[in-house]
Amino acid sequence: MLERFKADQNEMVFVESKSLKKISKEILVKEGMRPSFAASVSEALVAADMRGADTHGASNLIQPYVDWIRNKKTNPDPILRKVQDFAAIANFDADNGLVTGFGKEAMNIAVDKAKKFGVGVVTIKNAGHSGAIGTHAMHAVEKDMIGMVMTAVNPIVVPTFGAEQRLGTNPIAVAAPAKNEADFLFDVATSTIAGGKAKLVELAGKKLGAYTIAEPNGEPIKDEVSLPDMTFEDVLFLPFGGTRDSGSHKGYGFAMIAEIMSGILSGCESLMINNSRDDPRGALNSHFFAAFNIAAFGDVEKFKTNMDQMLIKLKETKPSPGNNRVIYPGLLEREEEIFRIKNGIPIHKNLVEWLDSLSKQYGIEKIHRRRG
Amino acid sequence: MLERFKADQNEMVFVESKSLKKISKEILVKEGMRPSFAASVSEALVAADMRGADTHGASNLIQPYVDWIRNKKTNPDPILRKVQDFAAIANFDADNGLVTGFGKEAMNIAVDKAKKFGVGVVTIKNAGHSGAIGTHAMHAVEKDMIGMVMTAVNPIVVPTFGAEQRLGTNPIAVAAPAKNEADFLFDVATSTIAGGKAKLVELAGKKLGAYTIAEPNGEPIKDEVSLPDMTFEDVLFLPFGGTRDSGSHKGYGFAMIAEIMSGILSGCESLMINNSRDDPRGALNSHFFAAFNIAAFGDVEKFKTNMDQMLIKLKETKPSPGNNRVIYPGLLEREEEIFRIKNGIPIHKNLVEWLDSLSKQYGIEKIHRRRG
Fold first, then answer.
1. Which residues of chain A lie closer than 8 angstroms to B211, CB-CB?
2. What's the CATH number for A3-362?
3. CATH topology of domain B3-7+80-318+320-336
4. Binary contact (A118, B209; C-beta < 8 A)
5. Where do the domains of chain B lie?
6. ipTM of the complex
7. Which residues of A touch B163 (CB under 8 A)?
8. pLDDT digits 0-9 by tens, B63-120
9. Which residues contact A181 (CB under 8 A, 6 or more apart)?
C-alpha cells in the first residue's frame, strides 16, 4: 500500500482479530442482521483486515454497514434466491443483501460446480456492497482452484475522452494457488484508485496521485491533487491508465467487462442506465464469480510448482532506481497477514471509541486491545 | 487507432478481401501448409484486416508467417491434440501450430461445451502465434455467447518497479453481442503498446507515446520517444498504466492473469522460466478460450437490449476538450469493417509487390486491386 493511504500510526490501536470479528458480528446482530449472515459478513471483513486491505475490512466498513442497516440501504435478512441453475452455471438474486456476506457461499457454489464440470460460474444481481472481492476469490484457492470475481457498482468513473461519469470503480480479482510462495492475489479497482482508498487519502489529509481524477470538463489532472471540495460521488475519477497514451482506454475496457459479466449477464440493466444512487434501497450492485478446477486441466502439484518458479523469478527481478524490490500481487498481502497474526489489526482510535460505546449500549463484551 | 500507427496513405493499395484471403491461403499451401489449416489461418487474418486490426491481419502477418514456415519456427501441418477433456473444459497441445488457424476451432469447442454446461473453457499449450484474439472471441458472439481469450507470449515487458523483462505483451480479449449497436469487442495487449504496433510506429518513422517503454535501468520514459537503436526484443516495454501512480501495477497484474490462465493452467512452465526465444522451434505460446452461454443465465434478447442501452449511453457521453466523441471497444472496428466492405483493404505497396512476385513464382492468380 502506498504511503498516502496510511493513517497516522499514532492514532492506531492494535486489536485482536478474533475480538474484532466477534464484536462486528454482535453489533450487526443487535442492529437487526440475521446471526448466520452477520457471522459471514464479519468473517469476510476481518479476512480483508488481516491481509491489510483496510478499505474493505471491518476497520473501515463496520460503521457504514451499521448506517446502511439503520437507513434501510441494505437488507439485514436477505435470501440468496436462485434465478437460474444450469449445469456449470447459476444466477442468483441477492435480495439487496451484502455480498460481503454471500461471497463465500457464491464462490463455494462455483467451486462445487467446478468439481463436477471443470469450471463453475455464479452471477448475482440486486446485491449490496461486495466487500473485498479478493477474499471471495481466495475461497477457490483453498480448494486448489483459480478464483475470479468481478463487480459492477454505481458510476463515478469517466470513459476515456469523456466528461461524464459512466462506469463504476468496477473491481476485478483473480487468485491462484502457489506452493511455498504467497498465493497470487490480484484485486483491483478498474479506476486509477478505489473509492474507499480515495476517502482514506482525504481522511489522512494527503493528495491523490497524478492521473487519478479529471477536471470537471473531463481533462485528466496530471499532478498530485487534493480531492475537490464537492460531493464525493460527483468527482470524476479516471479509468486506470489515466490517459489514452498510457492506456486508460484499457482500464475503461476492463471496467466494461466487469459491467457486462456481472451486471448485464446476471440480467440487470447496466448501472449506467439504472443508477442506484437515486434508488431508496441503496446500492444495486451485481457480481460474477468463477472457479477453474486446476485438477481438471492437469496436475495440481505441477501447477503450484510452476507458480512458485514464476513468482520467485518476479521477486528476484532487478529493481529500477528508487525501488528496493519488485513485488507480485499477493506478496504484500501475505506479509501483512503474517505481521497481523503476530501483532493484531491496527484500527483507528475513533473506531475503538465508537465500538466501546456500542458495547456499552448493547451490553456486549468490549473489543480486546493488544498490549502495547 | 491513433495517428502514429497509420502508414502513409499514398503508399497503400486497396485490395479485395476475398482475393487477399485466397492468395494468403494459396501461398501458405505452396509453402507447405496443410490446405484446410491454411484456409483457417487466412480466414482469421483477413477477418482482422477487415476490422482494421492491421497488426494482426494478412497485411502485416503473411510475410512473417511465410518466413516462420521456411525457418521451421512454426509447424505447417499441426495436429490439435487433446491432453484433457472433462465436461465443460478441455486442454490441448497445438503441436507448435499457429493459433491463428486453431482459434475458431478452439472457440467452437468452448461454445459447444457452453451449450451443454452454460460455460466452456479450452486451454492450448505449445502453440504458435495467436493472431488477433478478438477475432477468436467473436466466434462466441456469433452464437450469442460472451467470448474471452487470453494469450501468454515471450517476455518483453518489465514488472512495475522492475528493470528486467519478465512478462509478455500477453493480450486479453472479451467480446459480447449487442442488438443494433456494434458488438462489444475489447482486444488489448497488457503492455502499454502491442509489439506489432510498436513495429508499425517504427516503420512509419513516428514516436512511441509517453510511458510506453523504460530506460535500460527500468525507469519509465515520460516523454514521446523513438524506439531505441537495439534489438526489438531487448527493449523494455512497460505494462499498461505506465507508472505505479496511473496503474501500471494493474497492467502488470492483468499480464500475470493471462500468464496463469493460459500458460500455467495449460500445463506449461511460465514463459518467464522457459523463454522460447532460445528455443529453435520458435514461439511456444499458450492460450485460454472461454465461452459464456448467455441463454443459460437469462434472456438473450434482454441481454442485447441492455447492451445497446449501455453502449448508446457511452457513445452519447459529453466529450472532454480536444476530443470529438467518446467511443467504446468495438465501435471503431465495426465502422472500419463497414468502410472496408465497401472500399477493400488497404495494404502497403511493398506487400503487393511481394505478393505479385510469389504469384508469378507459384503460378497462382495475382491479388485483385480495387479500381482507384
1. 245-246
2. 3.30.1370.60
3. Ribosomal Protein S8; Chain: A, domain 1 (3.30.1370)
4. no
5. 3-7+80-318+320-336
6. 0.96
7. 317-320
8. 999 999 999 999 999 999 999 999 999 999 999 999 999 999 999 999 999 999 999 9
9. A307, A308, A311, A312, A315, A331
